[in-house]
Amino acid sequence: MTTKKLSAGDIIEARCTKCREVLNHRIVAMVEEKVVRVECNTCLGVHNYHAPAIAKESKTPKKTSTAKPRSTSAVPRASRKDPVEVEREEWASLSPTFDHDKALPYDMNGRFNVKRLVLHQTFGIGLVKAVIVPNKMQVLFKDGIKLLRCL
Ligand SMILES: [Zn+2]
Fold first, then answer.
1. More confident residue, 73 or 150
2. Element (H or E) spanning 14, and its range?
3. Cα–Cα distance between 151 and 145 in angstroms, integer?
4. DSSP string across 26-86
5. Structural domains counted in the chain
6. pLDDT of residue 57 exceeding 80
7. Distance from Cα 26 to the centre of ligand 1, integer Å
8. How far is ligand 1, taken at its centre, from the CA of residue 16, in Å?
9. How many Å lie between the centroid of ligand 1 and the Cα of residue 3?
10. 87 shares a domain with 48
11. CA 46 to mean position of chain CA atoms
């Protein structure tokens, strides 16, 4: 935005259609406050006024580098820990929610669904994390996830 008033005969920067550069031009014609025709000081060609700023902006599109998407801490908090340690911690955090009355005694010929509580003779109470075909399930026990046989 130019605050100073321009008038015919003034020298302004404009984009020259012949030189293809932003050069000093002399104002030839104005309509009210707007410069409409200019004479190039370099090639002396007279052409319509092209604002230099517009030409520059079209060449360099606005970069939104500041709005770079932040990786929302994709790395798990316990990434450097031993996986078994992580599983133990998971069990410890879940165990208060375990309803021991609902735990099914583990039976290698039993059917277990995910999130089912299992009571194992050796490993104690555990939570079925996943059922994997064929006939295997991952159960989270106090000592970590064990792979158990099931139907
Ligand atoms: Zn020119």
1. 150
2. strand 11-15
3. 18
4. EEEEEETTEEEEEEETTT--EEE---HHHHHHHHSPPP-GGGPPP----S-TTTTS-HHHH
5. 2
6. no
7. 11
8. 5
9. 25
10. no
11. 50
